[in-house]
Specification:
Strand content of chain B: under 5%
Strand content of chain A: 15-25%
Strand order of the largest sheet of chain B: 1-2
Helix content of chain B: 55-70%
Strand order of the largest sheet of chain A: 1-2
Distance between the termini of chain A: 31 Å
Radius of gyration of chain A: 23 Å
Number of helices of chain A: 2
Shape of chain A: elongated
Structural class of chain B: mainly alpha
Oligomer: heterodimer
Number of strands of chain B: 2
Order of helices and strands of chain B: HEHHEH
């Protein structure tokens, strides 16, 4: 159970940096319309590839063992609806051959840049707060060490 | 109970303060690390209990003719943490950490720690001077 203040702050900083990485990934994939394809059989015996767009990822935070620090965060997919646009000329549009009702629709990721920006500021501030806790701990340790001098 | 030279005057009191503030920093660092953790409630070291125990121990030290401080009364305290008395509003995600309160608490606690450590160092310096049979310049 004995974790030091430094470990606690470090776990907080790690969690915030992971959040930052996930935000960067979300922003980079804002317009990625195909991360994998699902090949389906069509009615006439052929195949049609349906493209799956990138889905927004989010970090889930939880308190660490014994309530100290932040546990190693989990990254999960955001299940909110995708942005749909009708654009049959797009190479990643749902093909007409698939026989789906939404043929000709391109699905874009459920990433909202403003949300990501707000999250980014929050993560950055929380990181800095942990950093100042580390600084304070360092100053305190230095003061304790000066007892020896 | 007799006690050594280190159990007299302000030395044991300062030592208790240094230890308690170090333990309290851990609670504050934990609150700051978990500032966005859903369901997390702010914790704190038992400040009121510590103050009460310290006041009692100091009074007992004054009342005793030999002026020895009883460390046992304080030893058990910093090992546990309790829910913080002063917290921010409870947010929708079940977290009540207020970063400003924690920062203020952290600075105050850090200053008390540094002050106690500096005074402790000074006390040891005085002892060293006494041992060296020199007069303070």
């Amino acid at each position: 159970m004995d974790v030091s203040s430094m470990d606690i702050s470090a776990s907080g900083m790690r969690a915030q940096r992971l959040r930052m990485e996930v935000i960067a990934r979300n922003l980079a994939h804002m317009e990625t319309t195909s991360v994998r394809t699902e090949v389906r059989e069509t009615a006439d015996g052929g195949t049609a590839a349906v493209h799956q767009p990138y889905r927004r990822q989010r970090v889930v935070l939880a308190a660490g063992p014994g309530g100290f620090g932040v546990a190693v965060p989990r990254v999960v997919e955001d299940g909110s609806p995708l942005r749909a646009e009708h654009d049959p000329g797009h190479p990643h549009a749902v093909p007409a051959a698939s026989g789906r009702e939404d043929a000709g629709t391109v699905y874009y990721p459920n990433v909202h840049p403003i949300e990501e920006m707000v999250d980014m500021v929050a993560a950055s501030r929380a990181y800095e707060a942990n950093l100042s806790a580390v600084e304070a701990f360092k100053a305190m340790s230095a003061a304790s060490l000066r007892i020896l001098a | 109970m007799t006690g050594t030279i280190f159990d007299r005057d302000s030395l044991p009191v300062l030592e208790a303060l240094v230890r308690f503030t170090a333990a309290r920093h851990k609670a504050i660092a934990n609150n700051i690390a978990n500032v966005e953790t859903p369901g997390y409630r702010a914790i704190d070291a038992p400040v009121a209990d510590f103050k009460r125990a310290l006041a009692r121990a100091i009074q007992a030290q004054r009342d005793s003719r030999i002026g020895v401080f009883d460390r046992k009364a304080l030893d058990a305290l910093p090992a546990r943490y309790e829910a913080a008395r002063e917290t921010g509003i409870l947010k929708a995600n079940g977290n009540d950490v207020d970063l400003e309160i924690e920062m203020g608490r952290m600075v105050q606690n850090g200053m008390l720690h540094n002050l106690s450590a500096a005074l402790l160092a000074h006390q040891f310096g005085l002892l060293r001077e006494a041992i060296g049979e020199r007069v303070l310049s």
